[in-house]
Design brief:
Number of helices: 9
Structural class: alpha/beta
Strand order of the largest sheet: 6-5-4-3-2-1-13
Largest sheet: 7 strands, mixed
CATH superfamily: Ribonuclease Z/Hydroxyacylglutathione hydrolase-like
CATH class: Alpha Beta
Shape: globular
Number of domains: 1
Strand content: 15-25%
Order of helices and strands: EEEHEHHEHEEEEHEHHHEHEE
C-alpha cells in the first residue's frame, strides 16, 4: 500500500478502544504514532501489513496516561529509540507506571502546551488541545500538512469549545463514538461506572458524536472515523446508524457528503490518505 512521495499523508488506526489504542500517521516521509497501547509486536505486524517499516518511525505522541493508550510505549521507545512526546501531566503519571518499564531519558519529551518536535519538516505542524477526560492533562492532536489537516479526538466527556475549535476545518477526524445511551443505562455496569462513562470527564455517546460530526462536515471535514466504540455498551453498526441519523437530521447526506469509517476495536482498520 505504501505510496512514496513528499505530498502523501496516510492515516491508519491500528486499534481503537479500551483494549488498546494506536494510530499510525505518515506525512510525506515523516511517520509517527499517536498513542501506543498495544504490544510492540502487534504494532510492528500491523505496519508491515500495509508496507510500512516500524524501524522508520520518527516519534510517538501520547494523548493521556491510561494504560490502553500507553502500555506499549516503553517497548517501542527502547526498541527503536523513539522520542516520546507527552504533556507534563501525562509524564507525571507515566513515570509512576511500572508496567511501562524504563523509558530512556533521552527519549522523553515533555511539553506544557504544544509539542516542540525535533527536526520536523516545515510542511508539518502538530498542535495539542485539551480534552475533558479523567486523566491528568489529557490532550488530543491536530496535524497539519501541506494545507490539509487531520485530528484525533477520543476519550471526551463532552465537546468543549477548545475541542470544537481544534477540529474545525480538519479534512479527517478520528472521533469518539463510545456508547449508546440506552445500552449503557440498561447494561451490567455498576452505577458508579455508568456515572463515570456518561460524566463530563468520561466518554462521548453516539448521539453527541453524530451532532459534532454534523458540525464538522458543515465546516469542511470529508472523512470521519468513529472510534473507541465500547464492547459492552455499543456496537459498530449502532454507532454508524446513530451518527448517520444525526447527519441526515442536519440535512447532510451520509453517503455523499462525508465518508464514515470505523476505527476497529483490537484490530487494524482501513487506512486512508488525506
Amino acid at each position: 500500500m505504501r505510496v512514496s512521495g513528499d505530498d502523501t499523508a496516510l492515516f491508519y488506526p491500528i486499534s481503537s478502544g479500551s483494549c488498546g489504542n494506536a494510530v499510525y500517521v505518515r506525512c510525506g516521509e515523516t511517520p509517527f504514532l499517536i498513542d501506543c497501547g498495544l504490544p510492540g509486536c502487534r504494532i510492528e505486524r500491523a505496519l508491515r501489513a500495509i508496507g510500512e517499516d516500524p524501524a522508520g518511525l520518527s516519534f510517538i505522541l501520547v494523548t493521556h496516561a491510561h494504560a490502553d493508550h500507553t502500555s506499549g510505549i516503553g517497548v517501542m521507545a527502547r526498541r527503536y529509540r523513539l522520542p516520546v512526546y507527552a504533556s507534563s501531566g501525562t509524564w507525571e503519571w507515566m513515570r509512576r507506571d511500572e508496567r511501562l518499564g524504563v523509558i530512556p531519558e533521552e527519549c522523553r519529551r515533555e511539553f506544557f502546551r504544544d509539542p516542540e518536535i525535533d527536526s520536523l519538516p516545515p510542511s508539518i505542524s502538530i498542535s495539542a488541545f485539551s480534552t475533558p477526560h479523567d486523566a491528568l492533562d489529557s490532550v488530543g492532536y491536530r496535524i497539519a500538512y501541506n494545507g490539509r489537516a487531520a485530528a484525533v479526538a477520543t476519550d471526551l466527556g463532552y465537546v468543549s469549545l477548545e475541542v470544537r475549535a481544534a477540529l474545525e476545518g480538519a479534512d479527517l477526524v478520528l472521533l469518539e463514538s463510545n456508547h449508546d445511551v440506552e445500552m449503557l443505562e440498561n447494561g451490567h455496569y455498576p452505577e458508579d461506572l455508568k456515572k463515570r462513562v456518561r460524566g463530563n470527564r468520561g466518554h462521548l455517546s453516539n448521539r453527541d458524536a453524530g451532532r459534532l460530526a454534523a458540525e464538522l462536515v458543515r465546516k469542511g471535514t470529508t472523512k470521519i472515523y468513529l472510534g473507541h466504540i465500547s464492547q459492552d455498551n455499543n456496537t459498530p453498526r449502532l454507532a454508524l446508524e446513530t451518527v448517520r441519523r444525526e447527519l441526515r437530521g442536519a440535512g447532510i447526506d451520509p453517503q455523499t457528503d462525508v465518508r464514515l469509517l470505523l476505527a476497529k476495536r483490537g484490530e487494524p482498520s482501513e487506512a486512508c490518505y488525506w
